[in-house]
Amino acid sequence: MAYDPENIFARILRDEIPSTRVYEDDEFVAIRDVAPAAPTHILVLPRHEGVTGPADLEQADAPWVGRMVVVATQVAREQGLDADGYRLVMNWGRDAGQTVPHLHLHILGGRPMLGLA
Ligand code: AMP
Predict the structure, then answer these.
(1) Whole-structure pTM over 0.90, yes or no?
(2) Which residues lie with the beta carbon below 6 Å from any ligand 1 atom?
(3) Is there a catalytic annotation at residue 104?
(4) Which atom of ligand 1 is nearest to the CA of 101?
(5) Does residue 72 lie within any of the structural domains?
(6) Contact predicate 57/90, CB 8 Å
(7) Which residue positions in the chain have pLDDT lower than 70?
(8) What are the CA-CA distances from residue 37 to residues 15, 41, 61, 67 (Å)?
(9) Please, are residues 52 and 8 in contact by the beta-carbon 8 Å criterion?
């Protein structure tokens, strides 16, 4: 899949579209999902452009993808999710329901999410 720099997350990262930011650093921005699937639903967006989703990743991406996971755990902790737990989700393609072609990590918490996996 070719990366489209006009995708909605790229535009959010450029501040062309408003979002509710709960965390940001040089590499990542975490925003509240506009249609939350759980009481806490946050998306960690890498500023890194060009990767539409997990199937686009290459070995060279491993260091920043690893940091993205660690940032997600920090954000989850700051949101008070450590005690009851949370889910980190990365979607690829139609069957997963991916809608935005810019790699991102969902943080879902605040209710039981049993089943599926
Ligand atoms: P995915 O299905 O993995 O591609 O997830 C994309 C997510 O982005 C969905 O959960 C949407 O609700 C969310 N989303 C779409 N547009 C926005 C937006 N403008 N601000 C925040 N979240 C959004």
Answers:
(1) yes
(2) 8, 17, 19, 31, 33-35, 43, 91, 97-100
(3) yes
(4) 4
(5) yes
(6) no
(7) none
(8) 24, 6, 28, 24
(9) no
